[in-house]
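Morning. Coffee machine broken again, so started the prediction first thing and wrote up yesterday's gels while waiting. Chain of 66 residues, entered below exactly as on the submission form.
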Amino acid sequence: MESETDPIITINDARKAGYCVNGMRKWARHHNLDFKDFVKNGLPASKLLATGDQLGINIVNRAKDK
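Came back before lunch.
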């Protein structure tokens, strides 16, 4: 269940932020995130932010602006 404080970020959010699926697959692997789950269900914003990586931060910020 998505909450306003921890929204679910989807692969579509990543694509809208300008990131390709192949790049996201590599990024998820690097950060030990389940890419298949990300594609199928999305991930809580907190998981992307917890990576501390600018790519994750950009996607979350872009998704919050929609």
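The first helix runs from residue 11 to 16. Going to sketch it on the whiteboard this afternoon.
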